[in-house]
Amino acid sequence: MKMTIIMMFMLSSTLFLMMKHPLSSGFMLLMQTTFSCMINSMNSYSYWFSYILFIIFIGGMMVLFIYIASIASNEKFKFSMKTMMLMTMITIIMMMIDSTIMNNMMNEMMLYIKNTKMSNKEMMSIMKMFNFPMMMLSMLTIIYLLLTLIAVVKITMIEKGPLRMKN
């Protein structure tokens, strides 16, 4: 289950780079937020961190949605057949990778966790978030923030002048 969510996160990251419309980019960011919170809730004993993370990201998405709605309110939303075909191919390839390579990697990771006794409840601390099993979530959060930064830079081009004309 966890590997499927990670694969969906990677697929939405790939699709995010292909999106042309700001609302579809916002939807992909929302999907990535949901996937990262699901991964975090599966890896910790308490759901509070994932809940707070989700609430913070949703607050940021609301601000981003209001901003985009004022800029691109009349822009048409188009589906590209090329993008749909590419998305289908990437999904099939990721399913193949998930069934072969990722299962072996997950078994090795579980063996490592059992050997280092990291699964004890006494070892739960803030440092667990940056150790081996949870390191992937931190990396996915860093990638999410980088993609959000790229989206904001693409939206606010200096050559185009102010974001909204004053009458």
TrEMBL record:
Residues 1-25 form the signal peptide. Its EC number is 7.1.1.2. GO terms for molecular function: NADH dehydrogenase (ubiquinone) activity. It is a multi-pass membrane protein. One of its GO terms (cellular component) is mitochondrial membrane. The keyword Transmembrane helix applies. InterPro entries: ComplexI_Subunit6 (IPR050269). It is found in: Mitochondrion membrane. Keywords: Electron transport, Membrane, Mitochondrion, NAD, Respiratory chain, Signal, Translocase, Transmembrane, Transmembrane helix, Transport. Belongs to the complex I subunit 6 family. This is NADH-ubiquinone oxidoreductase chain 6. It comes from Aeneolamia contigua.
